[in-house]
Amino acid sequence: MITIVHLITGLETGGAERVLSHLVASTNRDRFRSVVVSIREPGKMASAIIRAGVELRTLRVGRSVPDPRGLLRLDRVLREVRPEILQTWLYHADFLGLLIRQLGRIPHLVWNVRCSDASLSRADIALRRMLSWCSCVPDAVVVNSRAGQHFHERIGYRPGRWEHVPNGFDTNELRPDPEARGRMRAALAIDDETILIGLPARYHPMKDHDTFLTAAGILTTTRPEVRFALLGTGIEPSNCALMKSITSRGIADRVLLLGERDDMAGMYAAFDIATLCSAFGEGFPNVLGEAMASGLPCVATDIGDAAEVLSGTGIIVAPRDPQALAAAWRKLIDLGAEGRRLLGDQARQRITRDYGLGSAIARYEALYSDIVARSEAFRTRRGSTAASTVSGQ
Which residues face 199 on adjacent strands? Predict the structure, then answer.
């Protein structure tokens, strides 16, 4: 059995965290043992990992001040668990994995890069630069998008092995569900004739809520029957900046602020159109694949691998262009309910065929098996060479 320790910065709700939780829950447990280690105190995604029966540890490192005790705590975990592979997720975990590898505590190290041209603090930019210099150290660097790989190559990443593993989606959980649609829309006090456009995205400049809200203001001048649902971390009435953006556009009665949700399958079922309008930084946006698996027609900005993922089953627009975004929504509304359903069916078929959860899990398992097998083959060859040398003396 191969033991993999997955080291991640934290377990708040996010794309990398969701992918990790699905991975460790679905990996073949007859062949692989998974242990998850969170650098920070675990967040909301920790419960999904625990429910799956996967061991979870935390290093209890704070968010702002570097704490060398984190390295010591990780070292203790690794000495106890004795993994064949340390798989790190996101830059801070990659850095900690690099240090522990240099100390000789693990046989194999795999980094996981999830973004493209993300906006970072000066400290994080310096960290990423340092990681690029050391990118030959890990056995492999996993990327979930071609855009992410190309960006990191441009800034100097030169690993011995790139491994492209797109996000995978559970199409049994994420699917068109008329009953869930009815229940959710009733709970939101939205009748079936209202067009509901959803933006599942945390409040962050990368997600560009301003462009979404400007486009919403444009659309409602000609389509008063449309409403908009925003959901994610920071999407609350207490967010003064967000509320100012909404009220200044005169659409306060058109916008639902639904916060962070743990019932996303039901939320997707309630939407008529899903939107991703990020301005930068995306690799393979998880919410785009989730919405497509749910049978939704989507509008997305041309960031990361969004155009490749949609592949003609939705509409791609330029980033930071509210007029184009509003026009794309209008085009999908004009298709009518049946036209949107047919387009959503095509989107779901695309995810089922090319981005199923089973395919992603199989790629990770094949990567881990190959790394260990190559190492064992190398040790065998080296042992044979040494034996031949001794016998020849």
Answer: 230
- Which residues lie across from 37 on neighbouring strands? 7, 57
The pLDDT value given to residue 194: 95
Structural domains for the chain:
2-168+356-386 (3.40.50.2000), 178-350 (3.40.50.2000)
pLDDT along the chain (393 residues), means of 10: 93 86 93 94 86 92 68 91 94 92 89 78 85 95 93 94 94 94 95 96 94 97 94 94 96 95 93 96 92 97 95 96 98 97 97 95 96 77 54 55
Cβ–Cβ < 8 Å for 171, 201: no
Nearest-angstrom CA–CA distance, 254 and 216: 9
Write a three-state SS string for 64-110.
CCCCCHHHHHHHHHHHHHCCCEEEEECHHHHHHHHHHHHCCCCCEEE
Write out pLDDT tens, residues 26-51.
999 999 999 999 998 888 888 889 99
Cα 66 from Cα 10, distance rounded (Å): 15
Give the per-residue SS3 of 202-265.
CCCHHHCHHHHHHHHHHHHCCCCCEEEEEECCCCCCCCHHHHHHHHHCCCCCCEEECCCCCCHH
Q: How far apart are CA 216 and CA 250, in angstroms?
A: 10
Mean pLDDT of the chain: 91
Compute the distance between CA of residue 70 and CA of residue 39 in angstroms, rounded to an integer.
7
The tokens 């997305």 sit on which residue? 300
Those residues whose C-beta lies under 8 Å from the C-beta of residue 88, and which sit 6 or more positions away, are 6, 7, 8, 94, 96, 97, 109, 110, 111, 112
Going edge to edge, which strands form the sheet with 85-89?
55-58, 32-38, 2-8, 85-89, 108-113, 140-143, 162-164
Both structure tokens of 277: 């309008």
pLDDT value at position 390? 47
Residue type, 56: L
Query: Which residue carries 């920070």 as its tokens?
Result: 40
Q: Is 274 helix (H, G, I), strand (E, B) or coil?
A: strand
Secondary-structure percent of the chain, ordered helix, strand, coil, rounded to 5: 45, 15, 35
Distance, CA of 18 to CA of 167 (rounded, Å):
10
Contacts of 220 (CB under 8 A, 6+ apart): 226, 251, 254
Task: State the Cα–Cα distance between residues 202 and 233, nearest whole angstrom.
Answer: 4
